[in-house]
Task: structure prediction
Amino acid sequence: MIQEDLIPTQTLCSYYNIEISFVDDLHKMGLIQVKIIEQTPCIHQDQITHLEKIIRLYHELNVNLEGIDIVFNLLEKERELRHELTALKNRLRLYE
Result:
């Protein structure tokens, strides 16, 4: 992993006006991945959109962290089911 792709959590917390403890809680729950580089916790830039979704759910919709975890688990299940449905439709086309 290239270090230029990592953004310090302190920078993100300042930019998004969130507490570092919030990012720590998200990491503990497994909602985001935090890498420690030279004793500085960092987040990969690919996770920024994911973090922004979490922040919107938390601040704008007042969803607690457990609720956010449930929402993302349900969204992942929906993606899996859509993928499975597409695969099954493709298989059915073979028999038409």
